[in-house]
Amino acid sequence: MTRQSCAEYFGTCPNGEKVSQITLTSGSFSCQILTLGATIRSLLVPDRNGMPVDVVLGYDTLEEYLSRDGYLGATIGRFANRIAGAQFKLNGTTYPLAANDNANHLHGGLKGFSHRIWTVEQLEESSVVLSLHSADGEEGYPGNLTASVCYSLSEAGLTVRYRATSDADTICSLTNHSYFNLSGHDAGTVLEQEIMIHAQNYTPSDAQSIPLGCIVPVEGTPMDLRTPVLIGAGVDSPFPQIKQAKGYDHNYVIDGQAGALRPAAQAFSKATGISMQVSTTLPGVHFYTANFIEPGRKGKGGCAYGPRHAFCLETQHFPDAPNQPAFPSALLKAGQEYDHTTVFAFGK
Ligand code: BGC
Asked: E strand or H helix at 310, and its extent?
């Protein structure tokens, strides 16, 4: 494949900005990335018979990406998940942020990284580097920040490397919000798929999904996913944390040392034989069971998505970390480099 053939026109935003789609290939794997939000639009993985299965939810058109909520496949920044009261304090100054989820800040605000057009810096057959400049004060965050995400596809899976630097102290937590269905994006619910999360602890949250600030053991509760279980076994549990969130929508404290690439989670579909192993250098992973995708939402190829039609494994700093002294710090100091990697590896 020639370099030119890897990028094609996808659509034009109402303000005239053009969006491209990049196709990465490696053996029997392929992946489509949009410059809008550095979004993963498709990820084709061979099933047990070697047939390609698209394991991520997405849309056919740019209009749908711009008008629908849920952040399907997008890169989230400057700060993934919620910041309570849409503000945080840093070096004695309080920074008010855009409030876009009740009174809270969610996934980077009104026009977070998921809704920006990223620049293609480097494009090869199986990898791409996209970058973004986020100005001082954008969505309320301090510091001019330059971020990049590198996707590299191999026959082992997809590696995502996030890098960022700022000219002033700021906070940073970048993630990818892919909705996975290992039976195929259009295969219905994931209740019969297995999940395992390498976490002895999680961070419980309140009715608005704001962390309570404590770190508690999963032991003895349906939050315990340390051995593989069907997603359907716990997702409708009356356990208060699950009931209040209408399913799983929780940050797990990944075992081991943050900073080192270590196993975070794994999942498996008996229907296709596809398994996925997620590892990361980040401290947490958010397990979300697509609780708020309304029934009948139109997806790729005109199929219908709905609640529990996918699961997300969003590797991240803990939600609300900037306001929670007991959580690992999400501070990015001026001139330092944010450098984190998440690997989505597939087997069959
Ligand atoms: C959040 C959910 C939210 C979803 C889509 C997840 O990361 O934790 O509460 O509904 O993203 O915005």
From this structure: none
Q: What is the mean pLDDT of the chain?
A: 97
Our answer to whether residue 314 is catalytic in this structure is yes
pTM of the predicted protein model: 0.97
Segment 146-192, tens digit of pLDDT: 999 999 999 999 999 999 999 999 999 999 999 999 999 999 999 99
The yes-or-no answer on residue 177 being catalytic is: yes
Nearest CA to ligand 1 atom 9: 249
Rounded to the nearest whole angstrom, what is the distance from the C-alpha of residue 243 to the centroid of ligand 1? 15
Q: Tell me the domain boundaries of the chain.
A: 6-347
Please state, in angstroms and as integers, the Cα–Cα distance from residue 230 to each residue in 53, 206, 266, following that order.
Answer: 20, 25, 12
Q: Which tokens hold the place of 302?
A: 């005109």
Q: Which atom of ligand 1 is nearest to the CA of 319?
A: 8
Centre of ligand 1 from the C-alpha of residue 143, in Å: 26
Catalytic residue, chosen from 105, 107, 177, 309, is 177
- Would you say residue 4 has pLDDT above 70? no
CATH number for the domain whose boundaries are 6-347: 2.70.98.10
CA neighbor of 280 nearest in space, from 209, 341, 325: 341
